[in-house]
Write a structure and sequence with these properties.
Helix content: over 70%
Number of helices: 12
Shape: globular
Strand order of the largest sheet: 1-3-4
Structural class: mainly alpha
Distance between the termini: 68 Å
Order of helices and strands: EHHHHHHEEEEHHHHHH
Radius of gyration: 27 Å
Oligomer: single chain
């Protein structure tokens, strides 16, 4: 029989321990078996696919900007920073999953750094997507003033502000996340002879919010997810809806096939953003509202399972960002083809240097001198 010990008074009266008494029902903690089974599948397998796809896609964007296409517009600077934020996230995700599966074996420092860095990349990535939508609004709807407002100096300054703001918003995550033993610390067995025998359960370390003050705990437990909802989802969503609605209206007025094709691209961008992030944020909102209310084990397990699944769907957005914001552009696809050709030519030169050395060198130089057939003054984002 398991009991939580809160008072070591005189319990010499054995009639007090009536094992069949209904006055002292035994309450056990929720096991959340459904959520655990889902995590065993999502953690090692689904997250691995997300990491591989996200790493490849965002690395290609960064390599393209580093060696093939210099950042020549405000949109290019935003796209490069989004790719960096997503790449850092997919590098951190395997470490987070590994620590969750091994009871945070990397220690308390890794707990704070990984959770805090995840928060920084969450805020920065979402705010940068809002910046891209604002840039598209200025370039298309406010075209007359776009040359004055869309300079590289402004874009770099805005990106710096976004990263600093994301870091400030993540300070509570760095501070309050702690690695601690979540196993029961005062559990005892009561033998038939009415002796108290400690129940030594194995330690189970978690990396969660830990507060030393009840008042601070109540405020922080509501403030941190509320800030994530407001700044990390609803603010970028409102900016994207406003900007892209104005963009669509302007494009529909233009009698041009390419402009109408761009309308579909805009709709896909907004739809993917909503599909990926709305389910998790609705679940997080419900969890925040019902945080201090009573909940059955079944409801608690269902809520945790929903958070696990919807959060994984939100993670998919980092894999789709390169496709939506970079590779939909004609110029960016041409640069990507050049990367594939150059890698192929280099591979042939190293595999068979005698046979292909001269041909490979000529092909490689010709691909480096090739032109895209499009103007470099435009944006990477097809509009």
């Amino acid at each position: 029989m398991m009991m939580e010990v809160t008072d070591y008074g005189d319990y010499s009266n054995q009639s007090y321990y009536d094992y069949n008494s209904t006055d002292y029902p035994r309450e056990e903690p929720c096991n959340h078996l459904k959520n655990q089974s889902v995590e065993l599948v999502i953690g090692p397998y689904v997250h691995s696919i997300i990491c591989i796809l996200g790493f490849v896609g965002n690395s290609l964007v960064i390599v393209t900007y580093a060696f093939y296409k210099r950042t020549k517009s405000m949109t290019d600077v935003y796209l490069l920073n989004v790719a960096i934020a997503d790449l850092v996230f997919v590098v951190l995700l395997p470490l987070i999953v590994y620590n969750e599966l091994t009871a945070w074996s990397m220690g308390p420092v890794a707990c704070k750094l990984l959770r805090g860095s995840y928060s920084v990349n969450l805020y920065s990535g979402m705010l940068l997507l809002a910046c891209i939508s604002t840039d598209r609004y200025i370039a298309i709807v406010q075209a007359r003033r776009s040359f004055r407002l869309r300079s590289l100096q402004y874009s770099r300054l805005i990106c710096t502000i976004v990263w600093v703001f994301a870091l400030l918003l993540s300070v509570p995550s760095f501070y309050f996340y702690n690695r601690y033993d979540a196993s029961p610390s005062e559990s005892f067995f009561i033998t038939e002879e009415m002796d108290w025998v400690p129940d030594f359960e194995p330690s189970h370390y978690v990396c969660e919010f830990k507060f030393m003050d009840t008042t601070i705990a109540k405020k922080a437990r509501v403030a941190i997810p509320s800030t994530q909802l407001a700044v990390g989802f609803f603010l970028p969503l409102l900016i994207m809806v406003f900007c892209y609605t104005a963009v669509i209206i302007t494009l529909l007025k233009a009698k041009n096939f390419q402009r109408h094709k761009a309308v579909r691209v805009v709709l896909v961008v907004v739809a993917v953003f909503v599909i990926c992030h709305l389910p998790y944020n609705v679940t997080l909102l419900y969890d925040t509202i019902t945080m201090f209310g009573e909940m059955t084990c079944e409801d608690s397990d269902a809520l945790l399972t929903a958070k696990t699944v919807t959060q994984t769907i939100a993670y998919l957005h980092c894999c789709l960002n390169p496709v939506l914001y970079a590779f939909v552009g004609v110029k960016f696809r041409n640069h990507f083809r050049r990367i594939v050709r150059d890698v192929w030519c280099l591979g042939k030169r190293y595999i068979a240097p005698r046979r292909f050395s001269r041909t490979t060198s000529e092909v490689f130089m010709s691909t480096r001198r090739s032109v895209d057939g499009t103007s470099e003054n435009g944006s990477s984002f097809t509009m």
